[in-house]
Amino acid sequence: MGEETVIHRTTGSLLLSPVSDIVGVPLDQVNFLVCQIFGLAVACWFRLSLSPWRFGPVVRHVVATLLGCCFAIFCFGWYASHLFILVLACYAIMVMASHGNIHRYSMIAAMGYLTVCQISRVFIFNYGILSTDFSGPLMIVTQKITILAFQVHDGTSKEDTLTAEQKEQAVLSKPSLLQYLSYNLNFFSVLVGPCSNYKDYVAFIEGRHAQHRLRRPGAQGVSVQNGWDKVAEPSPVGAVVHKLLVCAGCLLVFFTITKAFPIAHNMDPLFISQAPFLTRLTYAFVSIQAARPKFYFAWTLADAVHNAAGYGIKGLNEKGEVSWDLVSNINIWEIEATTSFKNFIDNWNIQTGIWLKCVCYDRASRYRTALTFVLSALWHGVYPGYYFTFLTAIPITMAARAMRKNVRHHFLSSSTLKLSYDVVTWAATQLTICYTVMPFLLLAVEPTMQYYRSMYFHVHIISVLLALSLPSKPRAPLLQPQPQPHNLNNNVKGD
Q1: Given 266, 349, 406, 486, which residue is catalytic?
Q2: Residue 223 above 50 pLDDT?
Q3: What is the distance between the alpha carbons of residues 54 and 301, in angstroms, rounded to a whole number?
Q4: pTM for the complete prediction?
Q5: Does the pLDDT value for residue 433 go beyond 50?
Q6: Measured distance CA(44)–CA(42) in Å, rounded
Q7: Fewest CB within a 10 Å sphere: which of 216, 346, 360, 401?
Q8: For residues 449 and 479, what is the distance between their CA atoms, to the nearest angstrom?
Q9: Which of 82, 380, 409, 489 is catalytic?
Q10: How far apart (Å, rounded) are the C-alpha atoms in residues 263 and 335?
Q11: What is the spatial distance between Cα 451 and Cα 267, in angstroms, rounded to a whole number?
């Protein structure tokens, strides 16, 4: 037989097959990229021609929804029906369920349907995941359905039972069908997300987004609009251009570095048997670092699409400039320079972290960290590698907390010690992340165990020993130091 021919399947449109053949990129990826680029152009048109000053929210909702449905059908074909079935079924729950149970029923229905689809995906694709299969949008829709259900539930709960954040995001009335469809299926986020808060989205559609986000408290506690209600809304052009340049850089890195360091080489029997441990550790580090740009690209491009439509204003930054990072899913600098496992989690897939916090971490009375990681694994799918990653993250998180509480304060007495601490914790954090996320990319049990055996399970062992041996509360010093001015400088985020 001749060379094996690799066939790249897609569940979506075959219209761009000639383009896929010419550029040598799988058709599902071509469909996704074309939809996102077209979505960027449509977002600009949506902001300029369908502005809320020209058209009412009904028109904007309808257009956003119809375009989102078209994008989903183009990319996933009949598999897009899963999105529509889940959204309509959960809207029925939204209408019929009581406020006291709406969050429970919605969570069970959405996560249950997603899990069934994830299980079927294992058998359909047999671990050969398409780059843009239908479960990705289904995961985003699941986030939106459940977070909105919890916020509607909070809207009728007693205020003394809610946190300040839950009070702020509480939805006081159930959405209409059009609002619900638009929130879940709009073209900005239908393909790759991210999930955003319902109140922010509705404010954007109705033209209140900029005024709401750029409001600041006045001297006497009176809200002041900073003049944004008297002048044109801020232009997103600078933010969009910046994010598109980041996307271009990520593509360059992907085609030059990522393909030169394939993840699969970590499993090569010859490499494992002949390469020294430090060589294998270094290659794992480089290959995982090189795998990140494709995620950076997809999430940053999605962020740019939102911004191009005028959505994504977070407020004013410390320089007094408009920040367009409300729906950003990553903070690349914080990820690459982080000295903390928690800080990495906080800056990777940010909107998913917000969702997990809203529907699980803040609601659980016990075992918050463990339950949150388990829910995250279940949301990602049923591939064993996901569970290896998130279950491994539990002892690592516990060990990192214990180390920070017991060790960090010893290195804050001088800038030299602080720098040395940062360098060591950066290297330890990045190597630990590589070890933890490797199963996420390998998916199956056998290659995961093969990799962990080649690494001698060293991170598992070290994490468990640190978590068990270090006290949860550090012993107080004999002499308490007196408070010093500007003491907040020692509390640097991410250390």
Answers
A1: 349
A2: no
A3: 27
A4: 0.87
A5: yes
A6: 5
A7: 216
A8: 49
A9: 380
A10: 20
A11: 6
